[in-house]
Amino acid sequence: MLSKIRLGSRINLVIVILLLIIFSSLGVVFFQYQRSEILSQLDERMNTELNDLSDILKLQNIERQKSVSISLNLAKALFIKTDSITQNDSLSLDYLAINQITKEQYRIRVPYWHHDNNILQRNYEFVDMIKKDTDVTATIFQKIDQGYLRISTNVPTNSGKRAVGTFIPNSSPIIQTIEYGNDYVNRAYVVSDWYTAAYTPLYVDGEISGILYVGIKELDLKSLKSVFDKRTYFETGYPFIVSSEGYIQVHPKGYNKIDIQGTELFAKIKKAYSNRQYKIEYKWPENNEGKEKIAYIKYLQSSQGFICVSVYTDELYSELNLLRVILLAGIIFSIIIFVAVFMSIFGRITKFITLLVTNMNEMATGKIVVSIEHSRQDEIGSIANSLNTLIKTWNEKIAFAKSIGNGNFGAKLKLLSKDDVLGNVLIEMQKSLQSAETEQQKRSLEDYRRNWTSDGLAKFAEILRNKNTDLQHFGEELTVQIVKYLGIEIAAFYLVNDTDSNDIFIEPVSLYAYNRQRQVDTRIELNEGLIGRVVSERKYIYMTELPHDYIKITSGLGGEQPNSLLVLPFIYNKQILGVLELASFKTFQPFEIEFTNKICDSIASSINSVKINTHTQELLYKSKHQAEALAAQEEELRQNIEEMQTTQEESYRREKVLNSSVSELRKLKSEDELKDIQQTKQTVELQLQHKKVLNELKIKENTSRSIIENSLDGVIIINETGIISFFNNSATKIWGYTAEEVLGKNVSMLMPSNVAIKHNSFISNYLRTNKAKIIGIGREVLALRKNGSQTYIFLSIIETKIAGNTNFTAFVRDLTQDKEIQDEQVSLTENIMAKELEYRSRIDNLEAILRSNNIPIPDNKQYSLINWLPEYNLNIEIIDNQHHNWIKLINNLHDAFKLGRAMKQLESIFDELHDYTGFHFGTEEKFMQNFDYDDYENHHDSHTKFFEQLEKFRNEYEKGKPQVAYDLMQFLRKWVHIHITECDKKYVECFKNNNV
Predict the structure, then answer these.
(1) Range of weakest confidence among 271-285, 599-613, 843-857
(2) Measuring CA to CA, which residue among 708, 743, 709 is closest to residue 724?
(3) Under DSSP, is residue 407 helix (H, G, I), strand (E, B) or coil?
(4) CA triplet 834, 836, 841: central angle to 5 degrees?
(5) Mutual orientation of helices 877-898 and 816-852 as an angle, nearest 10°?
(6) pLDDT greater than 90 at residue 382
(7) What is the pLDDT, as a whole number, of residue 25?
(8) Which residues, including other chains, have CB under 8 Å from residue 548's CB and lie 6 or more apart?
(9) Which of 56, 60, 41 is nearest to 231 (CA)?
């Protein structure tokens, strides 16, 4: 390993190691001594601080106990009198009671308490007076089955509200002491914190029915914080208090009520207390950013918590750190001086050798290195000269290789000698790369031409597959596509007209970008110009020197003559069918000419097919007409033959009876005349009957048209492409168009653009798939009137087919009046509610005037939304009581709406109704599950739907729709009546069979 280190560095390394060993040994000994002294002094100082803080807390605890005792005596003197509390069993109040320990909840009902003619429940006058006079918290408890309930208090919860409704459970030692008639004076857990507290029993009718409490928080945070803020150790050390449950109670930085139960710090505090230790080491905060600390702890029996004093380890050892820095600086300074002296002696030699080694290493890694400038004449100088020569040739070869890499195959390289292996290899590589580049360019060009040709053949093959019988359209489409694909500026498509074999000529079918006389010529002779020459010679002509003014390519800025011209024939089976003329500013490449020749062959085949198809259709048409004519002639000939046969037979018959008597001839003549008369009569009758039927049909048609024309609903008839063929008077009233303005036009003019797009797509989709989305289905849509306004209409469409033609008839009803009626109904509902609220306010004002004049107000139950009816009694006490309370909460919500209470008050009543409804439904469903009630699922579903509807009404009301309140009240009145009298009646027998 040492063999790889420089010589000078080896010497320096040995000296530095010796110095480090000497100074490090001295530093370690001195550092350990100082550390022991500092820790001893710190232990003594911190124990003294802990004792001082402990004494302060003990004195504060004694003061709290005295203050609580004095406050309890004062509260007794002010409150407790003989028979001072009276209980009214006829009136009761609902509470949601919460166990302050387990947080379990119960719905309970307690009787009203009166004290000096004042109701105690939720009356805070007395407890606030105690706090104001003595600066302690106070509470009045009322006995319940589960314990003692706070009915009046100024003890706060965690959220800062009064803790009314929380209760102390019967299992508490406080209750056990009070039940024996004794006072309880000790520390106690009150709602959410520890207090120095005093409890005394309250009597009603000689029995313990309540408790009076006063107390002070166990730790006076305000006074303690001022004491703790003044205590600092070193720079950032501080004291703090941790409860035995694992909460920081006092901290100079305000971290009160912080839970540290799951931290390593609290685990070490408990472990130290168990092992009777007074000092711990820990990291705070317990993450990557935490720092090491030392804490001294002491347990406080009076408050059952730990008082701690902590300091950061780095501050504790700050003096040692300073000493460590000084020692380290001395060692480094000595090393630097020694190395400086050594380098002044050996530096020049090692520097030059290092430079040589560096350049060689860089060359070994393939880097470009500059020559070394020097004036040395010794062996090291000779080495440097040889290295410079090597560097020069190395850099030249690198530059040569780089030029080749950049594609400069003409770069030159000077060989050192004929034996310069690397130079010869580089020159050979240059030649190989140059040859490969040429071949690659050729392959790329050939690939491009091949791909261009194959893509073009495929493209035009697709176009030719879609050919039709219209040669004009066929020629125009091909001309445009050829111009685009070849990227040229001008093209013309000609066909040979050989309809008349005696007059064959060339005629243009499609011209692209022409501006010369030929554009209007419709006839070119077979030997005329280049076009005629190509037809005659049946070979293509390619020219790059065009005659003056042969063709000009024009634009809005002027005209310019092209540079090249290509004229190709359409030949099929050695027959010339037409000519394709192409001109461009660019020069046509051989592969482009070859490609165009192939396309022309395919075009010729397609032209021949189109001509054959056209000729075949003409022959078929002529053949059809000739066949019809022959059939007619054949029929006429057949009739003539039949007439001749009949005539011959008649002549033969007459010849037989020629000798009959004249009377018989006359008789026959009379019979023939009679038959003629009868046939004439029948013909007249048939004509009259036909005329009558036509008149009846015409009357029915006119009647139907009149009915549709005068229909109250708009009627529109369109064909399968959306063209209007009928538009009645009611449609004119809806849209404002007359029938003459819309007939023959597309129905989309009657709809907004977004609706029209969907309508057309629906019709086309139906005709394609026969799946109806709008046919036979009525719906509301928007219509676009003539004046540009929009209105809602109700649209229904039916399909009719007559003589193979499909029509669609639309029946339209204007919803403008319906919308106005709906708006009037909403407005009327809002006005009714406003009047109801106004009348309710007037009634309340009248009641206030009557009360102020001591006039009794009769009890009128009609003010309530729901009155208790005899059929509501299920004779199940727990359910009937809940129904009473439930109806009362609904009536409270009804009264709040009528009185126009603020939104926050309504939300509170909504919440209370929602919670109690859930409590009531939960009670019913729990009984049903326990008793395996058969109809449980249906009953549960009805409860769920009620909640959903209640939330829906609430959300609508909060969105600013006051008329919803009226709908909600009607819903509650109807639902409660039906639910109790029908649904709840069903489970009465089941509940009673199970002793409920």
Answers:
(1) 843-857
(2) 743
(3) coil
(4) 95
(5) 100
(6) no
(7) 73
(8) 561
(9) 56
Whether the per-residue pLDDT at 220 is higher than 80: the answer is: no
pLDDT for 212 equals 93
pLDDT attached to residue 549: 65
Task: Determine the Cα–Cα distance for residues 584 and 568; give it in Å rounded to an integer.
Answer: 15
Q: Is the dihedral of CA 626, 628, 630, 633 positive or negative?
A: negative
Contact at 8 Å (CB) between 390 and 369? no
List C-alpha distances in Å: 396 to 360, 847, 878: 17, 115, 107
Do 790 and 755 contact (CB within 8 A), yes or no? no
284 neighbors 290 (Cβ within 8 angstroms): yes
Report how far apart the first and last C-alpha atoms of the chain are (Å, whole number): 95
CB 632 within 8 A of CB 605: no
Q: Helices marked H in 369-524 — which ranges?
A: 379-405, 421-465, 471-486
Is the sign of the CA dihedral 50, 51, 54, 59 positive or negative?
negative
Contact assessment for residue 732 and residue 739, using Cβ atoms and an 8 Å cutoff: yes
Summarize the confidence of residues 164-185 as an average pLDDT. 91
Would you state the structure tokens that stand for residue 580, as one six-digit string?
A: 């394709």
Q: What's the number of CA atoms in the CB half-sphere (13 Å) around residue 230? A: 8
- Residue 856 dihedral angles phi and psi, to the nearest 5°: -65, 145
Reading the block at residue 660, the tokens are 């009959």
Alpha carbon 427 to chain centroid, angstroms:
65
Which amino acid would we find at residue 294? I
**Exposure string over 439-454, b if 16+ CB within 10 A, otherwise e:** eeeeeeeeeebeeebe
Amino acid, res. 741: E
Contact assessment for residue 311 and residue 233, using Cβ atoms and an 8 Å cutoff:
yes
Long-range contacts, stretch 896-904, CB < 8 angstroms, 24+ apart: 897/837, 897/965, 897/969, 898/836, 898/837, 898/840, 899/837, 899/840, 899/841, 899/844, 900/837, 900/841, 903/958
310 against 721, higher pLDDT: 310
Enumerate residues 6+ apart whose C-beta is below 8 A from 921. Answer: 943
Q: Is 122 left (phi over 0), alpha (psi -120 to 50) or beta?
A: left
Q: How far apart are CA 690 and CA 375, in angstroms?
A: 137
Give Cα separations from 259 to 228, 247, 265, 302 (angstroms): 20, 5, 11, 21
Q: What percent of the chain has pLDDT over 90?
A: 7
List alpha helices for 579-661, DSSP H: 590-656
* HSE, side-chain direction, 13 A CA sphere, residue 587: 4
Q: Return all residues near 46 (Cβ < 8 A) that are at least 6 apart.
A: 233, 279, 296, 309
Return the number of other C-beta atoms located less than 10 Å from residue 245's C-beta: 13
The DSSP output letter for 748 is G
29 — pLDDT class (breaks 50, 70, 90): confident
The rounded mean pLDDT for the chain is: 77
For the full predicted model, state whether its pTM sits above 0.85: no
CA dihedral 874, 876, 879, 884 (to 10 degrees): 60
Digit-coded pLDDT (tens) for 391-412: 777 776 677 777 777 766 667 7
For 245-267, the pLDDT digits (tens) are 888 878 877 656 688 888 998 99
Residue with tokens 């046939």: 679
**Would you say residue 150 has pLDDT above 90?**
yes
Residue of 807, 619, 639 whose CA lies nearest to 723: 807
Pairwise CA distance, residues 766 & 798, whole Å = 12
Decide: 112 and 92 in contact? Cβ < 8 Å.
yes
- Number of Cβ within 10 Å of residue 24's Cβ equals 13
Tens-digit pLDDT profile for residues 500-553:
778 888 888 888 876 443 444 578 888 788 888 888 888 888 888 777 666 666
- ω into 285 cis (within 30 of 0): yes
